[in-house]
């Protein structure tokens, strides 16, 4: 197995969604590895991208504000890049049901834009797509592996699945090497905490840091796995440096699944602030909820040697410490 | 089980792609059942829609030339319809790889247009979507049932899968009743024979009727199942009249699978014209070929009582007779 970290020294890479949560954390790792890092981000308000996220590395990355939906722009920007971490996306499930077209444009059509740009202007590039476990929908069995049917429960999941599949077809048919990492719930510093439409964990962390009350929907017995952002970024680095995953979509899950209620208790314990209350499920959220979910990442581990190493307690401690220091900049 | 044929007497229905191959055959059945039939078709050249297809029933249907990509148009047209047979699509796999955006617009985005029109203007409607077995890709096992992974080998398959999934999500979340019929290779009178970019069977029938040579790619040993268009239309009628399939995507396969080479021999035998030659696979087609495929339709049979009844010999005989009489109108 190659030294995937050394691979990036001097390497021209691009991160779409590079000012977002995972993208900016990945950028930090890549500049430390000596990569030539270009961040492409549309900075659409509410989506999570922010110049705050690259505070301290501004001088070591090139920021290009652009929308990946723009074909001519992407045709230009992809040129000369050797690895593209394709993380730009609309993340909110609720928004996708209110405004399905915008979700389609960003999560589905724009992926074709990126890939067509590569096919026509940089066919030798490697593209690593940020997929999501959301596409599986309500699981038939646990843990969920890649043999599980893809059966999204919302428009966001459908569009993310299509965006992922374009990458695999462009790999198989056009030789634009690509793979997809189906990420489980990811958390850590720089995640969006401004509103609660991008999953609950960022919102919960904010409320706890503010010493406010959290609402747990239902009985809180559903289980989930969580991956700390540094572990997720390590998965991207490995996938980008290796051809082992080309043409595949693989799960990137967390260490141990945990009950929703236990996660909240752990957060409150780690923070020593905040409190929780049990409430009924809001109808809009219940309609697209998938119950318990956790992923089996065996395939990706075997292909790349990846292992998540950050325990939930440690990850939450670091995340809460980050927002204790920086919350005002993220509101 | 309700009398699904009686269900349509006086019933206002719409067929998108209604001047196309399956759409127009379905229209013929529906007018005979006394339905109030509106056909919506964009009449895009090369896609298969033609006024020839409704010759003899012109006075018993309402034709509205429109493109399902047009939201405001669809908002109006769906009103008052009780069943929509949603068959409009771009069918060519090869075209989808040459011009992926058009395929996306027609097979993916436009399905959202139809469904948003229903959600906002006619939420009580039932929508039956024409899915395709193409979305399964290269099978892991045969016959392929609905538990098989969806793993398209081309852009067309990805977009058709997304279009299908929108129907299921709109059923589950918004209550716009919908289901998808994953059709296997369909053949019969009124199928496109003008060019060879929409699958091989129409093209072969034309060549045989013209007493020309057919090219079989490779050794012709791959197996496929075929459904005669009247049997496919019977599946649509059953799905439209029943709520048994709501929220589901089900296979609609043929009677018996047959080797490609044996199919050609049967065609030539039935027609008593034409001849065949074995050639190498063209690279562009090989890249998206899926090898042997045939479907298991048990689920749909159990849900609706549907059975295909037309043997391949009988169906080919009727199809060849049709084109012997009408070929000039289809060139």
From TrEMBL, chains A, B:
Gene Ontology terms for molecular function: UDP-glucose 4-epimerase activity
EC number: 5.1.3.2
Pfam families (alphabetical): Epimerase (PF01370)
Keywords associated with the record: Isomerase
Top enzyme category: isomerase
Domain NAD-dependent epimerase/dehydratase: 13-253
PANTHER family in UniProt: BIFUNCTIONAL POLYMYXIN RESISTANCE PROTEIN ARNA, UDP-D-APIOSE_UDP-D-XYLOSE SYNTHASE 2
The protein's name: UDP-glucose 4-epimerase
Lineage per the UniProt record: Bacteria, Pseudomonadati, Acidobacteriota, Vicinamibacteria, Vicinamibacterales
């Amino acid at each position: 197995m190659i030294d995937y970290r050394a691979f990036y020294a001097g390497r021209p890479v691009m991160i779409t969604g590079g000012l977002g949560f995972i993208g900016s954390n990945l950028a930090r790792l890549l500049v430390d590895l000596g990569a030539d890092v270009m961040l492409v981000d549309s900075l659409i308000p509410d989506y999570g991208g922010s110049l705050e996220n690259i505070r301290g590395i501004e001088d070591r990355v090139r920021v290009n504000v652009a929308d990946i939906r723009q074909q001519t722009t992407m045709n230009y920007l992809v040129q000369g890049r050797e690895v593209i971490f394709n993380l730009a996306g609309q993340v909110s499930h609720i928004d996708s049901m209110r405004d399905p077209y915008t979700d389609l444009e960003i999560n589905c059509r724009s992926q074709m834009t990126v890939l067509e740009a590569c096919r026509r202007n940089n066919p030798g590039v490697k593209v690593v797509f940020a997929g999501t476990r959301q596409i599986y929908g309500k699981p038939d069995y646990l843990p969920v592996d890649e043999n599980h049917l893809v059966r999204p429960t919302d428009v966001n999941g459908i569009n993310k699945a299509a965006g992922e599949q374009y990458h695999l077809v462009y790999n198989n048919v056009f030789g634009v090497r690509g793979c997809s990492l189906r990420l489980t719930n990811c958390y850590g510093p720089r995640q969006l905490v401004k509103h609660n439409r991008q999953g609950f964990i960022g919102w919960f962390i904010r409320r706890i840091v503010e010493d406010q009350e959290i609402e747990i929907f239902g009985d809180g017995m559903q289980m989930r796995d969580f991956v700390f952002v540094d572990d997720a970024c390590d998965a991207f680095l490995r996938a980008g440096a290796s051809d082992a995953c080309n043409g595949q979509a693989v799960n990137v899950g967390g260490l141990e699944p945990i009950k929703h209620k236990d996660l909240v208790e752990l957060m409150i314990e780690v923070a020593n602030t905040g409190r929780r209350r049990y409430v009924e499920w809001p109808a809009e959220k219940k309609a697209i909820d998938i119950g318990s979910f956790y992923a089996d990442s065996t395939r990706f581990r075997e292909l790349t040697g990846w292992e998540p190493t950050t325990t939930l307690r440690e990850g939450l401690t670091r995340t809460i410490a980050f927002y204790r220091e920086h919350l005002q900049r993220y509101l």
